[in-house]
Amino acid sequence: MLKRNKPKYKQIIEAAVIVIAENGYHQAQVSKIAKQAGVADGTIYLYFKNKEDILISLFQEKMGSFIEKIQKEIGGISSPTEKLYVLIEKHFQLLAADRHLAIVTQLELRQSNKELRLRINEVLKRYLKVVDDILIEGIEKGEFRKDLDVRLARQMIFGTIDETVTTWVMNEQKYDLVALAKPVHQLLTKGCAA
Amino acid sequence: MLKRNKPKYKQIIEAAVIVIAENGYHQAQVSKIAKQAGVADGTIYLYFKNKEDILISLFQEKMGSFIEKIQKEIGGISSPTEKLYVLIEKHFQLLAADRHLAIVTQLELRQSNKELRLRINEVLKRYLKVVDDILIEGIEKGEFRKDLDVRLARQMIFGTIDETVTTWVMNEQKYDLVALAKPVHQLLTKGCAA
Amino acid sequence: MLKRNKPKYKQIIEAAVIVIAENGYHQAQVSKIAKQAGVADGTIYLYFKNKEDILISLFQEKMGSFIEKIQKEIGGISSPTEKLYVLIEKHFQLLAADRHLAIVTQLELRQSNKELRLRINEVLKRYLKVVDDILIEGIEKGEFRKDLDVRLARQMIFGTIDETVTTWVMNEQKYDLVALAKPVHQLLTKGCAA
Amino acid sequence: MLKRNKPKYKQIIEAAVIVIAENGYHQAQVSKIAKQAGVADGTIYLYFKNKEDILISLFQEKMGSFIEKIQKEIGGISSPTEKLYVLIEKHFQLLAADRHLAIVTQLELRQSNKELRLRINEVLKRYLKVVDDILIEGIEKGEFRKDLDVRLARQMIFGTIDETVTTWVMNEQKYDLVALAKPVHQLLTKGCAA
DNA sequence: CATGAATGAGGATTCATTCAT
DNA sequence: GATGAATGAATCCTCATTCAT
Questions:
Q1: How many CB atoms are closer than 10 A to CB B28?
Q2: Based on the number of CB atoms within 10 Å of its own CB, is C176 exposed (0-12), middle (13-18) or buried (19 or more)?
Q3: What are the CB-based long-range contacts (under 8 Å, 24+) for C171-175?
Q4: Dist CA A134 CA A112 (whole Å)
Q5: What's the pLDDT tens digit per position in D99-127?
Q6: Cβ proximity of D152 and C164 under 8 Å
Q7: Could you read off the pLDDT of A120-156 as tens digits, one per residue?
Q8: Which part of the chain is the HTH tetR-type domain (chains A, B, C, D) (predicted)?
Q9: In B, what residues contact A, Cβ < 8 A?
Q10: Nearest alpha carbon to residue D185 among D103, D92, D94, D116
Q11: What's chain C's average pLDDT?
């Protein structure tokens, strides 16, 4: 059986999300995660190479299912503009539904060292690929302009979504994030121009 | 004479930028900064309360002059759309001109703890205020649409600029960042729509 | 099992006594104590909250057994005057038998900060209570004079014993401390006698 | 002119007493003493070899005038028993009159290192000599018993006086110390009396 | 004489990781 | 597989002292 399918593997990752969200990245000691997961400190190392591996795995697992869910949702949609809307809405929905995960991805995991963030970026690329594909399809289908710089447009889309979620988390998730999907989508597709 | 006008104050901040950029946030020991600045370890503490104070001061000094320069540039411009362009271009120019500072602001300083990031955010607000003012003026002058959500638009603008710079830094500053000012400005003002 | 009954707990305390006696309070680094105890530096912190906690525990353990031994000795004696003699003799015997402990209690521990000394005083109070009890019993039994000020008499007894031991330690324990029990007792009881 | 007769010499010593009494031995930095004395840090070193020298000088100056005053008082008295009374009363009076000095000599200076305390003891010996002389005279004049062990009696006298003052200081000088001179004298002379 | 900016040595503590049981 | 006691490397800051002015 694959390591990542064993119950304790998932148990430890869920514990890590909770511990990091509640204590902050720098106060999330391995012993705290072990305690939260209900296992001994040493047991962690039967499932993860080291502490960094927990965090990378956490991001891979969570981001993986994140991307899968979004791909499934936009799979049946033909309009790229519409696909972009669903991507934004789903992105907001998934993070709004998991307060802990939102804190971890938007605030805490960014405190990790450069090394870890490079690994995280590799995972992110799969997400950015989804955005790229929508953009390319949109250009081909004539919904987006021909001379659109896909890389820049993707940076705008991701940058805007990310900044919107981060601001929401830093405001202690006080307002309805999902409700912003529509105006954000409008901004991104139509722009500020009069 | 104010502490922050003394030569060693600036000397230490410049040293901190270099050391953090070259060694990373977590490998930027006080002794390394002192050595780079050409002063004794203890001298650091004649000018800064503690290590965190160096980082906060660094950000305040750099971001402060950053904002001042941008404000000066857009001061003489009447069109908000044009102002936004100059803001983007200047933002890119200033960071492209200081490789070390770009690494520090886009990557290293984000690893700081929540406390420090809150302090950094206070400084950032002044920048976001500049963006907001441009947007409000744009709406009033009829260059931007009446129903524009200023907060969301600001999050798009800052998120896009930030993501663009970060991607550039993570790609080792291999391409011309300033050249992106025009298409980014176009994207932000006109959007992706055909 | 209680932390204080584990072998390493006692091992570390014994090491602390030796290191402090041989190097002095301010030269008794945690790493030195760990080395003397044959454990890693970090192990100290599995048994003690911090360095101060080692010193407080040391005093509590040693003074605790000190008081117990004295109480056991005087338990079977009926005459308060005789009790006082045994207390003095036992006090001298116990410190004369442990050169290191004598140095630590008479010289080194007094260099501790006010906070620590307040904690030490709490332990000392138990000792002073034993003296008080002897004095009160002596007054009741008519061996000591009715108008004896118990507090002052206790200060005389403790002050004299303490000064005698300190002088002996400062003279490098060159003469026989225990032999002084009899003349000291004589001096002290004349002051108290009815 | 002798260094110790210059105004700044005395100024610094008075400052040291105040700073140590108010901040504690370990919080009495040279810079604090300099500030309190109204001189620059460096000036301290024109009058004292090092920090330890300040403390030794402080004790020498204060203890010196302490002993002189006591010697002057007992000079005109013929009875050794009476002399002892005046010594105790004067000892209590002088410390009761200078709260700061009492704190410094009874609590703070004892936190100094072994080296410093050895130096302090040399000064103390002059005081103990005064006691010894009274005792010897008392034996010769038949007021104290012939077989009195002078060294032990001196340790009792000094130990008792010292313990009494220390207890009074630790009780925040709440009660009348001088009033204790009489009962303390009574306790001590009974032990010595012929 | 006086200044005060600059110096730099020194140590308690944390926590990821190991390994004997 | 699971445990958790033990390890030990690594760093910020203080403050007595100096010396150029």
A1: 24
A2: exposed
A3: C173/C96, C173/C99, C173/C102
A4: 30
A5: 999 999 998 888 877 777 778 888 899 99
A6: yes
A7: 888 899 999 999 999 999 999 999 988 899 999 999 9
A8: 6-66
A9: 24-26, 107-108, 110-114, 117, 121, 135, 138, 142-145, 148-149, 152-153, 155-156, 158-164, 167, 170, 180, 183-184, 187-194
A10: D92
A11: 92
Structural domains in chain D? 1-48 (1.10.10.60), 52-192 (1.10.357.10)
Please write the tens of the pLDDT for every residue from D25-40. Answer: 888 999 999 999 999 9
Helix (H, G, I), strand (E, B) or coil at D193: strand
How far, in Å, is the CA of B22 from the C1' of nucleotide E17?
28
Task: Please state the length of chain C.
Answer: 194
- Residue A57 CB contacts under 8 Å (≥ 6 apart), including other chains: A4, A9, A13, A48
d(CA A140, CA A149): 13
User: In angstroms, what separates the C-alpha of B69 from chain A's closest C-alpha?
Assistant: 24
Residue A172 and residue B177 in contact, taking contact as beta carbons nearer than 8 Å: no
Nearest residue on chain D to C116, alpha-carbon basis = D111
Rounded Cα gap, residues A161 and A157, in angstroms: 6
Rounded, the Å distance between the CA of B55 and C1' of E4 is 27
Residue C193: beta bridge partners?
C144
Q: What's the mean pLDDT in B47-59?
A: 93
| C42 CB contact with strand F at below 7 Å | yes
Cα separation values, C9 from C19, C48, C66, C139, C144, Å: 15, 8, 18, 42, 43
Query: In the beta sheet, which residues pair with residue A193?
Result: B144
- Cα dihedral sign for C57, C62, C63, C64? positive
Nearest-CA distance from C22 to chain D in Å?
Answer: 12
Q: Residue D3's CB: how many other CB atoms inside 10 A?
A: 11
